[in-house]
Amino acid sequence: MMRVLIRVSLSALLLLLPAWSQNLLYWPDPTWRAPESAAMRPNPLAGRPTAMAGGKKLFLRNCGECHTSDGTGLTKKHSADLQLPVVQQQSDGDLFWKITNGNTGRGMPAFSKLPELERWQLVLFLRTLRPIETPR
Fold this sequence. Notes:
Elements: H1 2-20, H2 36-39, H3 51-62, H4 64-67, H5 85-88, H6 92-101, H7 116-126
Helix pairs in contact: 3-7, 6-7
């Protein structure tokens, strides 16, 4: 009986681990949408995966304070969890536009001061952010 209880408890814990590693207080702003022309822009660095390393450095320097180094946004209650499918399913152009223009009403500053190619490098890095998978 005790073994069954321990197994059930451990199973429940393993199922809950992904939830603890996500920012459950974040909800997307449905009004924050890139214009269609911006959303359709392709990433000029898409065929250059080596540019992603620079994107990681830029992310840690400019974005990590709010979004954390793994992109979960757990340090600030309303920071976007960049690992979520709702973020990852956006086009490169959408993400580039959002990085460029920000959303000051939600605390996201505009990063238009960064050179354009650096913003595209950030988009490349954002594509590498994925939730940690738990073993089944």
